[in-house]
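Training component of the fellowship. As part of building independent skills, the fellow (R.M.) carried out the full modelling exercise for a liganded target. The chosen ligand was iron/sulfur cluster. The inputs are recorded below so that the supervisory panel can assess the work.
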Amino acid sequence: LEQVLSRMRQAAAAPMEYAAQWKEKTAGRVIGLLPMHFPGELAHAAGCLPVILQDDAEPITVGQSQVFNFYCGFNRSIIDQTLRGVFDGIDAIMFGDHCVQLLGTADIIRAERPELPILFNQLCTTLDANWALRETTGTFIQLWKELEALTGAEIASDTVRTSIRLFNRNRAQMRQLYDMRRKGLVTISGRDLQSVVKSSMVMDKQEHVDLLEQLLADVPREQPRRSDVPVYLSGHMCHAPKPELIDMFEECGARVVNDDLFVGWRFIHADMDEALEPVDAMSHWYVEKNQRLPCPTRTIKGADWEDYLLAEVERSHARGLVILMVKFCEPHMYFYPEIREAFEEHGIPHLLIETEHEEMPIEALKTRVETFVEIARRRAADKAA
Ligand code: SF4
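Fellow's submitted model of the complex:
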């Protein structure tokens, strides 16, 4: 188990080192993907390694002059890493445009790496428009062609089907781990769970599937401490919260039973329909995403994030909600008032923590989290009495 986790931790902590090793071994191409909506399946079927670009722990230095201070930490880190040459091993990049800041980041990458092939296909944001499915299918067909042009080889439908099956399997394995953890059947720290999901965004899919098979067999079947208070973690778009933050929740007596984080349940919660033609499977997977788990960067009538969270907190038997908001993340900020109002109306304890790329005052936050855990514990006891 330790060997499996250690391999995943390494890939999660140093994605570009992993990608460089993969490239040396396979002579294949590495494609950087911006989160959160483009599936990696097509790039995988093209024989490439799709790597979702991650922020790193380094302070923003050379990138500082290129970017506004009110860009979120993820954007600033991606720009800084581009300027530091961290992404030099990438052979092409797939841009997303799901928030205004990312468009600025895309421009800087373009200016800094003019030779880098860019696959920039805009996915529609209004997912329930009557043209959304047609438009999305067109976008994926276009991306398919661009990948063929990049690699100089045809991508057969059956190859994409195989990639979809493999990615589905990988997501299902991680959901199984989540389910076992939610039910209190296994013990795995939040930090390690994050490494499992984060490494799946980076590693060769078959290698990750094999490692997870071993992990699922070996993960200790233990009961969590009864005194821990179950909580639900929400938010944090595009990149993982700092592992020290997750450690701190656990030190304060909280047990995270579920989440909707991008480096978490949001990334693994849904599969593509293997019975459909591959391009249709991808299109349906995309346009139906907000019906399954609302994303603040997309819109759809009648599927509200706060309703999803209320239902999920109950389903997970969580006693409270912790909202992790990336500082300056506009899409999240617009939705927060609705979430707060809904949780206040239902009398469910909730706590907002704004996260930063730079050093965070973990000790000061600890007091707030301890108080929150105590409130959630007492509220649950009062309800049971
Ligand atoms: S974390 Fe928020 S602000 Fe930053 S890139 Fe993602 S959606 Fe945009």
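The panel noted the following from the submitted structure. The pocket of iron/sulfur cluster is lined by residues 72, 74-75, 99, 101-102, 237-238, 297, 326, 329-332 (CB under 6 Å). The chain has a mean pLDDT of 94.
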